[in-house]
Amino acid sequence: MSSLTDRYVAATMRAVPAQRRLELADELRGSIADMIDDRTASGQDPASAEREVLTELGNPEQLAARYSDRTLQLIGPRYFLMWWRLLRLLLTWIPAIVGVLAGLTKALVDGEPGAAIGTAVVAAMQTAVQIAFWVTLVFAVLERTRTPLGLPEWTVDELPEETRDRQISHSDSIASVVFLLATIGLLVGQHFQRWTTDDGTRLPALDPALWSFWLPALIVVLLATVGLEIAKYRSGRWTWPLVAVNAVLNVAFAAPVLWLLATDRLLNPELVERFAWLRDGGTVEFARVAGAVVVLVAIWDVIDSAVKATRAAR
Amino acid sequence: MVSEEVLRTHLQELRRGTVVVASLVALRRPDYGYALLQRLAAHGFAVDANTLYPLLRRLEDQGLLTSEWNTEESRPRKFYRTSDDGQDVLNRLLDDMTAVRSSVTELIEGAER
Q: Model pTM?
């Protein structure tokens, strides 16, 4: 059986560049022998002296890294901030966009609206993992090869104008925009991707007659709300004009929906005919619940924006 | 009272560069790894073996040390010696240590006034 020293030297040499191995091995072996001799000369038994010396030298891979001047970190201080910034930049938009596209494709092209949300979430998560992996891999390789990127040095001109903390966070704005676009997608999608009934015929959930005016109008309101989100993000906080626009947009969306619910014009009459519980007064129940949700969401949204504007004005 | 941990990190930071200086000074008389380690320890430079051995290789790669195998003794040993370049660098480092020392002294005296 080979001695502990042989095993230690072999383990260290495995992790240093081949062209230096022979000489380094001889020197390391000699140094270990010197250290052991010193201990046995003062009366220690050779076996425990060897153990003690090798323990003192520590993990052979770490020693090898010191010999070959190799980094023991995946991404060091030189690249860390750049890596982190790029990762955040890519992760904020790309997975969300891919998720929405995948969800819409599933709903509209493949004709499976029920599976759309699941598909969107899975696609977004897979994209996020892929982005994180490849970006990190590239930076880890740069770290190891010590490639200079030749990027310009930081200057004071890069300082953000804003000195107060943002009230509107990046991720909140993105989540809102994605939600609004998904809602528009759903409104359009329900027409083409229809509800499949028991007898195999497919029907839109909303009354197709609404396309002559009301549905396009609601989509315009939603698009205007996307514009509001962008304006809000750029201002960094809620202001009173933004609160006013928000209130108007909320009313512009909630009022037509409530009116359509109240006059029983929202759902596709053909669809109502197919389902017994809708036919037998179910539409009234549906109108009550949907109406309550629409009103509560609108009120909550307006109050929330007003509270935040008050806080920001302080 | 500061924690031992904080104190230890600061002392470590302060000592880091001095091992190079001490090695370059000591190796004006050629020596091998472990003997140098003991000499440094005897003069109050407690260096870990796993720091010193790779450091010697690095200084050799940078041309500040030269080396030679001595096969006359019981086991072959690699002897390091401070090169002319090493001596130049050492002089600069020693000047800098003196400068730091006198700056600190000036600061202390200035503060007392």
A: 0.62
